[in-house]
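Q: Sequence in, structure out?
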Amino acid sequence: MDPGEFFVRYTAENIEHFPGLVDAVRSFDAGARPSAINATAYLRGVDATKPVESLTRLYFIDGQLVGFYAMSNGEAVLNSRRLKKLGLQRPTQPAVLLTWIAKSAHHRCDGQVMLEHATGQARLAAEFSAATLLALDPFDEDTAAMWRERHGFLEAAPPREGRPKRLIIPLRPPGRAGG
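A: Exactly. Output:
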């Protein structure tokens, strides 16, 4: 990352340390697409003074909030073909769930930088929680196609009624155990 780039967790402690953090969040706009509208509403609705269900990280470039992502613990149910390909044993795998990720509609930023940061954080979390996957539930089919085509995400298993289409990437190469 460039010197003017940084990520900060959106927490009560960091709100005290970074003046303007709340204002940056309140003015964030991911755009007019339905997924962007929902991402903006999520971010603006985060109350950093309450216990979190999904930890949000804000991405700044030169003092401007250009994007964010949020993660929590989760799981992914894999079909037998996917299990074999990834060298895993049990169909239900622990995962770090990328619950939200969005870029500002008004500032340029490389979404790949946010994904790489999120993946790095997920790998760190996996050292303590044994997560094997980074997973996400795309907003719609266009978003799912983007994750598959640009970033190599795979469908965990064919979607079923009552279960979202979950996409995954392994946190470690197949057959490599965590440490």
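Strands lie at 5-9, 55-61, 64-77, 92-103, 133-136, 154-155, 167-170.
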